[in-house]
Amino acid sequence: MLIDSHCHLDFDSFAADREAVLARATAVHVTHILIPGLDLANSTAVLALTAQFPMLYGAVGVHPNRTAIWQDAWLAELRTLAQEAKIVAIGEIGLDYYWQDSPHATQQHAFAAQLHLAAELALPVIIHNREASADVIALLRQSPLTGWEDAGVLHSFSGDWPTAVAALDMGFYLGFTGPITYKKADELRQIAARAPLERILIETDAPFLTPQPRRGQRNEPAYVTYVAEKLAEIRGMETAVVAHQTTQNALRLFSKMTHKP
User: Fold this and answer.
1) Do the domain assignments include residue 190?
2) CATH classification of the domain holding 172
3) Could you say which DSSP state residue 260 is in?
4) Which residue range forms the structural domain that includes residue 214?
5) Using CA atoms, how far apart are residues 184 and 170, in angstroms rounded to an integer?
6) Phi/psi-derived region of residue 131, left when phi > 0, alpha when psi is between -120 and 50, beta in every other case
7) Under-50 pLDDT residues of the chain
């Protein structure tokens, strides 16, 4: 049993064969797939998609790269969406200083506002962090989520070890994706080896970040098996143990997930 805790299955790249993609995931014992929202319209589309397949769950939020015209009024719409049964988190939210699609101050305001919304609704958060670790950690420390036992996940973790420790100490999980299989990702593998297994999630971030054995192809939820296998390898464990523990971690963090395969 495996859970892909971050996958953009709603993207057009899956439009032609979405059911086949889900069948391949089921064949390798993926039982739950979590689809994050990127803005209000996308979050609404994610919710609609989750209604079509029992194994799909969603999150709602505004991605940092889509916050340039952020309005606090959006919080009311997110609040309404988040109360749907198949919405299990607020996300994908955070900071992205790589693309520069939105002013840093605007990103920070939107991030802080959505962290407060998550606390209000007692939902975990799915955090995007690209070249913004110091500010992400600072805003998490200032948020009402800090200290929660199951506050959220730093999705597709790419920070350094001090960032990992800071996040773990505040009650966050670390999500690992295809890059832990890449040849030059030694530092990332060292972090994945050192972090407590009970605070790790596995993800694909499909259609992006395809694991090394399938590099050059579109990523898909079935390929979360490669992440599990690499995590087991670098920790010197059986893949079945990693699969079981990361599944339990995801079910604990996203406690609204109720589908039984």
Assistant:
1) yes
2) 3.20.20.140
3) -
4) 2-253
5) 29
6) left
7) none
